[in-house]
Amino acid sequence: MAETKELKFREQRFCEEYVKSFNGTQSYLAAGYDCTEESAAVLASKMLRNVKVLEYIDNLLLSAGLNKQHVLKRLLDIATSNIINDDGEPKSPKDLSIEERRTISSYEIIEFTNSKTGDITKTIKLKCWSKDKALENLGRFFKLFTDVTESNSIIEGRLEIIMQQGDEVAERYNEEKKRLKKQQESADKTAGSADSNV
Questions:
Q1: How far apart are the first and last CA of the chain?
Q2: Three-point CA angle 180, 27, 159, nearest 5°
Q3: What domains appear along the chain, each with residue ranges and CATH number?
Q4: CA–CA distance, 9 with 12 (Å, rounded to integer)
Q5: Does an H or E element contain 126, and which?
Q6: Helix pair 167-197, 152-163: axis angle to 10 deg
C-alpha cells in the first residue's frame, strides 16, 4: 500500500472513495467530512489539487492494476456513450457492447402484473453514470478549467495528449505534475521569503 504518513485519515479515506467513483463530492462526504453537498464539491476540488492526495490516488490505482490510461478510457466511454437506438428506444442489455455496459451504474427489472388479465410485463430500468461528471473529470485532468490564462499552443498540446494512446499519456501527465509541483514549491519559497522580509 502507498506511503500515507503525510495524509490524515479522512484524506486517505477520500482517496479510497475517489478511486471507486471518481466523484469528488460524494467521496468527500463518504470520507466523513460534515458539510453540505455544495461545500463538499468545493472542498473536494481543492483536495484534488493537493500533490500528496494525487500521489496517493495514483498509488491506489496502480496497486489495483489500473493506470491513468484505464481511467481516462473509462471516463471517455462514459462521456461519449449512447445506449439509445436510432428509433429513440434504449438498446436491449444483450445488445450493449462491453464499453456501453460499463457506463451503466444500475440495472433493474420491474415486473407489472395486469390485475384483470394476469399478464406480466417486464420493464428494464437503466441508470447511467453521469456524462457531465465524466466530462468534468476529463477537463480537470487536462487542466481545461484552470484560473490561469494559458496560450492556445499549450491548450492544443494538452488536447493532442487526449488523442495519443498508451503509456505516453501517463508519462506526460507525470512530467506535467512534476513541473507543476516544482512551480508550486518555487512560488511557496518566493512567498515565504517575501513574508520574512516584511
A1: 43
A2: 40
A3: 1-66 (1.10.10), 81-128 (no CATH)
A4: 5
A5: strand 120-128
A6: 140
Beta bridge partners of 123: 110
pLDDT band at 154 (very low <50, low <70, confident <90, very high): low
C-alpha distances in Å from residue 76, one per residue of 21, 138, 190:
14, 8, 39
Query: Which of the listed ranges 30-34, 60-64, 108-112, 133-137 does the model predict with the highest average pLDDT?
Result: 30-34
Nearest to 29, CA basis, from 18, 20, 40: 40
pLDDT tens, position by position, 75-91: 888 888 888 888 888 88
Say what the pTM is: 0.42
* Gyration radius of the chain over CA positions: 22
Grid cell listed for 60: 491506489
Cell 515565504 appears where? 192
Distance (Å, whole) CA 35 – CA 44: 11
- For the stretch 122-144, pLDDT in tens is 887 878 888 888 888 888 777 77
From CA 122, how far away is CA 86, in angstroms rounded? 22
